[in-house]
Amino acid sequence: MPANSWTRHHILSLADFTNCEYDTVLRTAASFQEVLSRRTKKVPTLQGQVVANLFFEPSTRTRSSFELAAKRLSADTLNFTSATSSITKGETILDTAKTYLAMGTDIMVIRHREAGVPSAIASEMDRLGVKVSVLNAGDGQHEHPSQALLDLFTLCTLLDPAHPRLELLKDKKIAIVGDILHSRVARSNIWSLTATGAEVHLAAPPTLLPKLFADYGKNRPGKLFLHWQLEPALENADFVMTLRLQKERMSANLLPSGREYHRLFGITRSRLQRLCKPHVKVLHPGPVNRGVEISSDLMDDPEFSLIQTQVTSGVAVRMALLYLIGSGKTA
Amino acid sequence: MPANSWTRHHILSLADFTNCEYDTVLRTAASFQEVLSRRTKKVPTLQGQVVANLFFEPSTRTRSSFELAAKRLSADTLNFTSATSSITKGETILDTAKTYLAMGTDIMVIRHREAGVPSAIASEMDRLGVKVSVLNAGDGQHEHPSQALLDLFTLCTLLDPAHPRLELLKDKKIAIVGDILHSRVARSNIWSLTATGAEVHLAAPPTLLPKLFADYGKNRPGKLFLHWQLEPALENADFVMTLRLQKERMSANLLPSGREYHRLFGITRSRLQRLCKPHVKVLHPGPVNRGVEISSDLMDDPEFSLIQTQVTSGVAVRMALLYLIGSGKTA
Amino acid sequence: MPANSWTRHHILSLADFTNCEYDTVLRTAASFQEVLSRRTKKVPTLQGQVVANLFFEPSTRTRSSFELAAKRLSADTLNFTSATSSITKGETILDTAKTYLAMGTDIMVIRHREAGVPSAIASEMDRLGVKVSVLNAGDGQHEHPSQALLDLFTLCTLLDPAHPRLELLKDKKIAIVGDILHSRVARSNIWSLTATGAEVHLAAPPTLLPKLFADYGKNRPGKLFLHWQLEPALENADFVMTLRLQKERMSANLLPSGREYHRLFGITRSRLQRLCKPHVKVLHPGPVNRGVEISSDLMDDPEFSLIQTQVTSGVAVRMALLYLIGSGKTA
Fold it and tell me: What is the ipTM of this complex?
């Protein structure tokens, strides 16, 4: 495994990821993808290590994906969800993390409703001089690095399954459509996609895409464009990334209704065929509100939809991330 | 293991189970029962495979039994319960299943409040051309195949521990007592027991046993009888299967009170001794409402009660089922 | 491993623990502590055995600690919490335990809101003549043996890391401060610490420390003292054990407010430096109400606080307990 050059100890944000790091993640994930195609889909890499999933915000798919990735690396896993936690007993989040540290956790996978929590825990771990690694599994509206990396892996393996690499996306046109303002997935994807040299086009209603998002594109290899209508973002697009609409926000009048949203920004087969490149593909981090972000039939159409591939990529990419930050301890 | 002849890919219903299939399950479960008597109760059969327990309806014993069966076959397990799910986020059940499929699940064990959900998921998996197997762990009032198979195994191993087989129950009289109308356990048991050539006697208050249940006995090797009183069902019975009474239904006036039910249909030592064969045994799928379906002392009397044996059988039978549907992938 | 002399089958209370038993636990835990310092922190000791965590009262740290201890001994684990249980369906706690027994559980780790539940289950298991062991993980206000044993291990390893043993605490002064009346941790610690020959000083407001606690000190090697003020307990103390204050009890006016409690009984750096021995250390079973039982800065000060060490000790001590009661079955 090509991990010798890996030095990053925590994975908290993609804002400062180097191209070399992206390529190492892609290459390592590809090698694990190969492991997953074997009959026995396990490797002993992290045997005897403990991966604790500390999910202060509930999640099905991300938690299961990390849990499975850890088990396939032969790690022991501990699951913590706030429903059964000491948080209600007055313990701070940092105290909870320190407790799992003291039990012998090697890697903490942390999700929290508030931006910055995984970073704060990582800083405290570094201050304490301990070896534990922190992996941000989604913090508020800040970042969701493993989601963006699995999206990147999904796109790159589509273009070259054996050798996924950043340069494959150079000059591709990629649209990101939806509630960009509130999306940690969008922020992480903007970092990774503008690193590739792609043209990244954001499209959303004005309330969900403030002009200051243009700042994300400054001094990046790729170019970033903002649109308050769908059409210009889709025109000649190679890939369309859709984002989940939080229904809670609709009821608070921050969003139009699901039906209205779908009329203006919903991705349908006819829109793709009319506007995009012929072999355009659609992504969504899930869970999808069928008929809102994407029309229901398009979502299930393997000619256009990469949604299932994203989930599969997720296990391989998370194995790669756990391996890369965990290998310093095992190698 | 005698699995060479096994071709069934999903286990959804016992309605079309063949006698050969019943006997293969019984024989395979007996061999795992032997494994469970060893000091190290594990076999490497399903190493590297993933068994996902998708429980859209909460359950303690069935989920733990499947989880333990999977672990003893060395599979990795993922637990999903609707309390921590994306269902509330607007994702469909099918989308959840597809997500677990995409992660690399080999066998899905599915429980749902509504009849037909496991079958619908299995059909979709077949339509997609994927290898994943679906095991129905209880769907609404439809079926609960693994419960009926463990009941069958419990009865047959009692009669011949080394060679449990269907023909052992030929001409036995078996009573099924309780809320038959609403019971998926009863329906699955009617299929399996009428396959054996046994006489199956259903007994319940008229509101809980409509006449159309007689149709289940048509063209079956065994005979099916309906009774709206307890006594004729118990007379000369070899085995008495009791069913759980849902207290929610009592409050809705669909059932008499627990006390009234017990007076009319409750199984007590004196009733067994007065009416049944001398060595009669009582079964219950659990959890029992003590003093309602069965008198509390009878439940704890190993001379009459097979309830603990049923739980033990459950692990061996579920190991057999996971092995049989999983072995096509490993062999 | 020095387990040949171990005969205790259940661990329910420390009231009748012998000095030989304490020393065996300390010695065994020290050997597992060594295992935990290796790169691969697992041993195959309990492979193929099943440890079921039956938590009828929610807990994060204790459940995770037992789960990790079991996994590091290579046992399979099952987690049961009352939220997803049959208890609501009318099943008794004993029926739940018997179900897990029948599934093949080897060791049951039981926590319950009511005192005596683990003992009642253990008695029933013995009456049934089965080999399953019961480990009390906290029962009401009665006992929490594994917590007191990890506290003991923490103190003894501080004094002699290689050879922790009971006699190291002889003539030490140990203060236990807080809501002693309602604390199972306090009761178990009183048993273990008075076994060592230490001077044990209890300090609490009068409502939380009835005089009858003096009875715990009768006929014990160590001496037990009661104080209704903090100062005399802290004077020349070698160790200060603090207890968690249940905020629920404050609102019921059984306790003063958190602020008032902290003023009278809170442990601060200045109080320690003014009153205790120079190298005094502070313990707390967690989770801590920062600024109530202990000042926030003191809690994080490794010069004084043993709180993280306690958590680490917890895994080693629980491995030792599971090993000692489980080894009869594997050896």
Answer: 0.91
